[in-house]
Amino acid sequence: MAGEAPAVPAMDGYDSFSLIGRGGMASVWRARQMSLDRPVAVKILDAEQSASDEDIDRFQSEARAAARMSHPGLVQVYDAFYRGGRFCLVMELVEGSTLGAQIRRRGRLSQDEALRVAADVAAALGYAWDRLRLVHCDIKPENVLLGADGSAKVTDFGLSRSLSSLAARRSPDGEAYVFGTPAYMPPEQCTGEPELKPQADMYSLGATLYHAVTGRRLFEGTDPDDVMREQVEERVEDPVRLAPELSPFFLDFLERLLAKNPADRFPTWAAVVDSVSELREGRPATLPPLDPATQPSTLGRDPRREKERTARLKAARRGGGRSATRRARKIVVKAGAVAAAAAPAPGWRDALLAGLRRLPRRFVETPVPAGLLGSALLLLAAASLAARDRAAARADCARRIAALETACEAAPPATSAALAAALGDLDLFRVSPLAAAEPELARRADALRDSLGAEAKARARRTVEDLGAAVAPLAAAGRAKAAARYLRAYDGPWAAETLALRQDRARHLPR
Q: CA angle, corner 240, sides to 237 and 243, nearest 5?
């Protein structure tokens, strides 16, 4: 019946279920993971979202990749499985509320609060893209959770990506199937662009921030097709009319996030994070405002914004001498500390610190050169950090592959869980940038993946043979339907991997 509360789940390993919320495609439950005695959130998709064994494999593969990510701005995925005819996702339980709930309760957020959300979300999405080349595809207020301390976390990462892939494959006659929430979708997603880049999530973040600071969605229509057409073709009024207290620099930032053309948005998530940092310090973002004549945006521009921006820039130039000098000095000192901490070799560290101590006085007293020098040193520090992280990642990956090779020489993993975990680690490595940069490690990982994959298929076949032997007496007694139900309802190890084989065995039972 419509509106009827969903039945309380019964799930091995979890108890104490209580309903948190229900959406258009899933219900979310608070539960206790019995093995670790910890509270978790369990998202259970509606039955119609679980179609074929290919869907199941894709869901589990992408959710497994999401589970390998660990970042303070991402809701941690603990487990993903197909049980009772439905996809289930077990996640970190965040005590707090969604950004959407905050907007509904308060009407709108302040600029400072919106910038804090932007900083956390941009850092999390940048991590996911840099680590696994993942795009969320459905950033919106309901997918941003706010903790008790005000920090923001992105949720539904593997889920939104998997559902997008499933929907695209189910589209009839090869027509583009658009997945997402129209009120926050970028133009390229509205038109069915198959390969979305980070700039798609940037637009959705812009639409989310617009909603947060104005209390309105970009387009308030109820017909999805109309809203998607408006995202592609229309503009909305400058928020300065709705919230005059907003900084013109913040509105320039928002306007760039909402550029119609992805190439006119920010080049990287790091650039977004840097711009947010500058805005939180009361300074304009590094990138100049868009040119409305050649870089159209969904966000309109009111003349009052131009006037206010000009006035603020003039005031900064008139009174910024000493404060700019102090700020430049701090930048240089901070850059030196960061670079020194990041330096991979002691000699490089000592040389940098010695160079900082010998800085000519004019570099400290003149704001612009000091600022430029600080920026250069920060870039150098970032490059050093990246090199150190790459070296550490390579060493860690080499150790793990060597350990797997040694273990598999004796015997493959004894349990299905250990085998699945090993395959998951190898899958994660194969899609990481490290695989392309380290061909020898990639070759060894592929050889291991082929060997363990063959073992997994063999175990799946043996599982089906054992199940077939178990139901043979039922079939022989003329109870073929009961035997078929038993085969299809199997929910043990290798349930997902054996689905197609079990369905085929059920179809060919003697009648």
A: 115
**Rounded to whole angstroms, what are the CA distances from 217 to 121, 124, 460?**
19, 23, 49
Alpha-helix residue ranges (DSSP H) falling in 241-289: 248-257, 269-280
Quick one: tokens of 184?
A: 């926050």
Q: For 428-485, what is each residue's pLDDT tens digit?
A: 677 666 777 778 888 888 888 888 878 878 888 888 888 888 888 877 788 888 888 8
User: Which residue in 348, 353, 347, 311 sits closest to 332, CA to CA?
Assistant: 353
- The residues annotated as belonging to the active site are 138
Helix (H, G, I), strand (E, B) or coil at 457: helix
1-93, CATH topology level: Phosphorylase Kinase; domain 1 (3.30.200)
Q: Which fold has domain 97-319?
A: Transferase(Phosphotransferase); domain 1 (1.10.510)
CA distance 24 to 178: 16
- CA 425: distance to chain centroid? 19
Nearest Cα neighbor of 297 from 348, 342, 231 is 231
From the CA atom positions of the chain, what is the Rg in Å? 27
Quote the pTM value. 0.61
Contact 151, 95 (CB under 8 A): no
Number of H helices, E strands in the chain: 19, 8
